[in-house]
Amino acid sequence: MGKIACANVLSDLYAMGVTEVDNMLMLLSVSTKFSDKERDLIMPRMIQGFKDCAQEAGTTVNGGQTVFNPWLIIGGVATSVCSSQEFISPDNAMLSDVLVLTKPLGTQVAVNAHQWLDSPDRWNKIKLVVSEEEVRKAYLRAMSSMTRLNRIAAQLMHKYNAHAATDVTGFGLLGHAQNLAKHQKSEVSFVIHNLPIIAKMSAISKACNNMFNLVQGTSAETSGGLLVALPREQAAAYCKDIQNQEGFQAWIIGIVEKGNRTARIIDKPRIIEVPAKETDGELWD
């Protein structure tokens, strides 16, 4: 949870192509419902996870605030002092750009499905479309994805001349795409055709009468990927470079066309199962 929170905070800078972070603050809420034993076991691990992720990002945690609260909460602030050449303003998407997504969708569904393993009523709704093993693997994939930094994707935005980007988190893919489109200088709109989704999560969402709105693009993500507008002729190379450096896929999921600063997902988007096939002992290959 600490690592996920830290990665999520850092993505706000990464979405602007800023990869050198000068300082981080950690904001922590200790649950008043914890026993002393639970507090002493859980909180140090969360703090260490946050600090470990910050170290991986090449920065340090130098302060913050801790409060007591009924809810367990962790978050933070990341800051960087940089020149205008070191960040990419998120408002320059151009006609004929394409849209790239750097992490698969479906983390909310994966986490919920994993909890449902202990809830027979809920498990009965999805057991015909997914096995317990597949749910456990999806949960591990979600954890892997949420703790992975968007740092390399952000670095490569400069190399491949990205024009605009946002991170995909609580408002889901469509929510963040709409927010990004709304702030473009040019009269453009975003159209999304492809949805890369953690394997089996679209089937679970469908079995639950689309209660997560996953395919509709409003399922909340936590520490999701970057949604990047890139020149069409450079997007494939951007995805390939991420694959070469990190070993993870990125996908061209849509286009930038002339429009009135809106975003939409087509009626029947192509669902890309991630990974496309299962390999024993491997999460993503």
Structure, briefly:
The protein is α+β, with helices and mostly antiparallel strands and 285 residues long. Helices cover 38% and strands 24% of the residues. Strand 1 (23-31), helix 2 (36-56) and strand 2 (61-69) form a beta-alpha-beta unit.
The residue-averaged pLDDT reads 97
Categorize the overall geometry. globular
Head-to-tail CA distance between termini? 25 Å
Strand content: 15-25%
What is the fourth-level CATH superfamily of the largest domain?
Answer: PurM-like C-terminal domain
- CATH arch. level architecture of the largest domain: Alpha-Beta Complex
What structural class should be given to the helix and strand makeup?
Answer: alpha+beta
Instruction: Tally the beta strands.
Output: 9
CATH topology of the largest domain: Phosphoribosyl-aminoimidazole Synthetase, Chain A, domain 2
Query: How many DSSP H or I helices?
Result: 9
Low-confidence stretches: none
The tally of structural domains comes to 2
Report the helical percentage: 25-40%
Q: Calculate Rg over CA atoms.
A: 19 Å
**Strand order within the widest beta sheet:** 5-7-4-8-6-9
Series of H and E elements? HEHEEEHHHHEHEHEHEE
Determine and state the CATH class of the largest domain.
Alpha Beta
Instruction: Give a quick account of the main beta sheet: strands, pairing sense, barrel closure.
Output: 6 strands, mixed
